[in-house]
Each structure stands twice: as C-alpha cells, then as structure tokens.
Design a protein that fits this description.
The chain is an alpha/beta fold. It has helices at residues 36-44, 121-124, 127-141, 144-165, 173-212, 232-238, 240-246, 267-270, 273-295, 312-320; strands at 2-11, 14-19, 25-29, 68-76, 79-87, 91-95, 98-99, 112-115, 219-224, 257-262, 265-266, 300-303, 327-331, 344-349, 352-353. The strands form three sheets. It has a six-stranded antiparallel sheet with strand order 2-1-4-5-6-7, covered by helices on one side. Strands 8-12-13-3-14-15 form a six-stranded mixed sheet, with helices on both faces. A three-stranded antiparallel sheet has the order 9-10-11. The longest helix is centred in the middle third of the chain and has 40 residues, at 173-212.
Length: 354
C-alpha cells in the first residue's frame, strides 16, 4: 500500500488541500487545532471504517458548507487505484469511479492502521478495551469471526436476561440450557481464534518494543483466560446459581484479558506514560505486521501525536527505524523532526500545508 495523492475539500477545518506524500516517512507538525489529525482522519475513512475519533459524519463538514470531499490515489498489489468520498447527509464512496453500496465496501481495498492518543487506553484501562482491540484485529483477517462474535454476544445477553428471572420463573431453566449451548459452541471458537492471534503477537510485539526501548526493556504478553475451552461447559453450569444473584454471565471469553509486563512488572499498574504509549504503539505496528503476513498487503501507518511523552531515543526509532512502511506522523513540536534521516516534513497551519 502506497498513497500517491490525497485531495481534501471542506473537511473539518481543511478548506482545500492537496498532498503528494513521500513513499516512506511523512511528518506533519504545527500547533494544536490546525488540522493535522483531520488529515489523518480523512485518510483513515478510506479503510471503510468510521472515524477513529468517534465523530459523526455531519461533524466532518466544514462550517458553512453542505458537503465535504476527499479523494486518494494509491498503489495496491501493483495497481493504481483511486477512491473518492462525498460526505453530506451520509457518506457516499466510489472506487475507480464506480459507486459502492456503502463506505464499508471499501474495506479490504485500502489498508491502514491508526494510532491516536486515546490508544493508551489499551494499556491503562479495563479488559473490555483490550478485548475490543483483539477482536477487531481478528475481524480484519477472518471475516467469519464477526458472525461468531455476534452469535456469542447475543446468547450472553439473552442468558443475562433469563438468569435475572429464573428465581421467579423456574421454567426458564430449559431456555438457559439453550443459551449455554450457544455460548459453549461459539465461546470455544472465540478462545481458539484469540489464542492463535495472541501467539502471533507474542512473536512480533516484543521485538518491536525492544527496538523502541533500545533493547533496554523486555515486554511479555499473556492471555488471561476466564475459563479454558475444556472447562467452559462445566464452569458455566456451576456458576448458574451465582449468576442468578448477580444477573450476569460470569463465565466465558467475554471476561478474558491480556496482560503486558515490562521487565516482569505490570505495564498497566507501574508503567510510565511513555512506556504505556510505547506498548500501545507496538501493538498497533504488530497488528499491521500480522495483517501483511496473513493477507500479503502492507498497511499504511497513521500515527497521531505519537511523539509526546517519548524520550529522544524512542522518537528516533519511530522516525528512522520503521522499515518498508509508508508512515504519516503528526506532532506539535518541530524539534521532534530534527533527527529525521529521510522523508518529508510538512507544516500544517489553519488547515493548509505551508
């Protein structure tokens, strides 16, 4: 994947911008609220996903305008493709001039990973954030995983509703047996997919993190299973009485977690902000490595405000040691770019490239 050109019109604070990026490293600097993140967000939309900032489509349109427009030309698998998006009341997407049924239909054509300041939550927040990262990463490689997760989640929700009323309605016991069977069948599949993906992460993430930390720190990853596949049926049944009291399903992969340890110490509990940011970044870069390994396509890396809270050696790694990628990085301080060995540096001011 190589982005050759980006055209943006009336997107947030960007009135009219045309960018021809370097095929490797691109750094965009400038004060806050000048449009740096908006540029990355516009590129990200071509993955077919929603905004990584959680924005609604209406928020993309520049104040006083009726429509926003973004276009990108990119090389993928030796072919030059172009994709357009018109954003009015809803997004309309086009690939090589052909209208698509939905923006989501762009998925698989344009591949990117994004890192934003919010991604430090992967390390410091609760297990749900880490499970979401894991499941989203698996979705990109194995589309059928979406349906497995959908069936599992529905069964858990239905079981939760049933166990709340089981004390007063004993006839619901047979219905809960049906939900348990669905949870067991799909839960075992989820556990297997997650274990396989985490095995891949274990091969890649520590190497990336070691490079970022100049080989001074070791990172370990462990998958904390709430319950193994072999014991899922037994423990689900044994937990029914307690679940009746709490009104929730306490056993299953929806309670799993991932743990990260730096030099045998919990990164979540004791890691510095810079260390947590480095672990989260390592996860994102590993996600792209796995994507390439499984699909053959190298994703574009969009790294928003990645330099803050990193010491100079970690900044140098990001600028000069991420190989064979096209990278778009934003930062506030132009001093962060002084060690860039090759690539291009752009100043963004009032939504314009200076």
């Amino acid at each position: 994947m190589i982005v050759k050109k980006v055209i943006i019109k009336n997107f947030r604070n960007i009135e009219n911008l045309e960018l021809v990026p370097d095929e490797k490293m691109n750094v965009f600097y400038g004060p806050n609220a000048q449009g740096k993140t908006n540029l990355l967000e516009a590129i990200w939309l071509f993955t077919g996903a929603k905004s990584f900032r959680g924005a609604k489509d209406s928020e993309f349109i520049r104040f006083g305008q009726n429509e926003a427009y973004v276009k990108t030309e990119f090389f993928k698998d030796g072919a030059l493709l172009d994709s357009e998006m018109k954003i009015g009341e809803r997004r309309k997407a086009y690939l090589n001039g052909n209208a698509l049924p939905s923006p989501g239909a762009l998925a698989g054509n344009f591949c990117a990973i994004v890192f934003s300041p919010q991604d430090i939550s992967l390390i410091k927040d609760g297990p749900a954030v880490r499970r979401r990262f894991l499941d989203t990463a698996i979705f990109q490689i194995y589309p059928k995983y979406v349906e497995i997760m959908r069936k599992y989640t529905r069964a858990v929700q239905q079981r939760n509703a049933a166990v709340k009323d089981l004390y007063y309605h004993s006839e619901l016991a047979s219905l809960i047996d049906v939900f348990d069977a669905e949870i067991i069948e799909n839960g075992k599949k989820i556990i297997e997919y997650r274990k396989n993906y985490i095995d891949l992460l274990k091969q890649i993430v520590p190497k990336i993190y070691s490079g970022i930390s100049e080989n001074k720190e070791n990172l370990d990853i462990s998958y904390n299973l709430n319950c193994s596949s072999e014991l899922l049926a037994e423990r689900l049944k044994a937990a029914r009485r307690e679940d009746m009291r709490t009104g929730v399903t306490s056993v299953g992969p929806h309670r799993d977690d991932i743990e990260f340890s730096i030099n045998d110490t919990s990164a979540r509990l004791y890691g510095s902000q810079g260390q947590k940011r480095s672990v989260a970044l390592s996860l994102k870069l590993a996600e792209a490595e796995i994507l390439k390994k499984k699909t053959g396509s190298r994703a574009v890396a969009l790294l928003d405000d990645v330099m803050s809270e990193l010491d100079p050696s970690r900044q140098d790694y990001i600028l000069n040691h991420i190989k064979d990628w096209q990278v778009f990085i934003t930062c506030c301080d132009p001093q962060n770019t002084k060690n860039l060995a090759s690539g291009r540096v752009f100043k963004i001011e009032n939504g314009e490239i200076k």
